[in-house]
Amino acid sequence: MAIHKDIHAYNAAQTAGDKRICDALSKAIDRHLPGAESKVWHRHPVWFLDGNPAVGYSRLKDCVRLLFWSGQSFDEPGLEAEGSFKAAEARYTSVEEISMKDLKRWLEKAIAIQWDYKNIVKRKGKLERLK
What is the pLDDT of residues 76-88, one digit of tens each? Predict the structure, then answer.
């Protein structure tokens, strides 16, 4: 599957080192989440499973952050809690830091373990487990 044109443009706009990280992440995510919808959402690349955000990445001041919306439930080393809901992140400053083996396992868990962010507003901030 080809990388979504807006994600391709996002990656292309990064510095050379960050572009390598973003390209590696987008290719791996597309490969391991073949049925996911991908787009730039809130100015960052995000992949959705059944309309629910699963994984995305963004350029921060000093790194590229990979974010899994349900990642705290993965119980995985290498992912750190982020925010007050169920998200977890990994941060990269070079493409060599990305473990494709870990990333593949995390993406498999993103399919198997999901919290319902799609309906969080309707439920007044309460998350419910989908899978």
Answer: 999 999 987 899 9
Q: Considering only the top CATH level, what class is 5-112?
A: alpha beta
Q: Are strands 37-41 and 44-49 parallel, antiparallel or unpaired?
A: antiparallel
Residue spans of alpha helices (H) in the chain? 5-12, 16-32, 100-112
Q: Do residues 107 and 71 touch, judged by C-beta distance below 8 A?
A: no
Q: How does DSSP classify residue 15? A: -
Tell me how far apart the alpha carbons of residues 24 and 117 are, in angstroms, rounded to a whole number.
26
What tokens does 41 get? Answer: 């959402």
Are 110 and 86 in contact by the 8 Å Cβ rule? The answer is no
23 CB contacts (<8 Å, ≥6 apart)? Answer: 11
Q: What is the pLDDT of residue 109?
A: 96
pTM of the model: 0.90
Beta bridge partners of 41: 44
Assess contact for 21 and 56: CB atoms under 8 A.
no
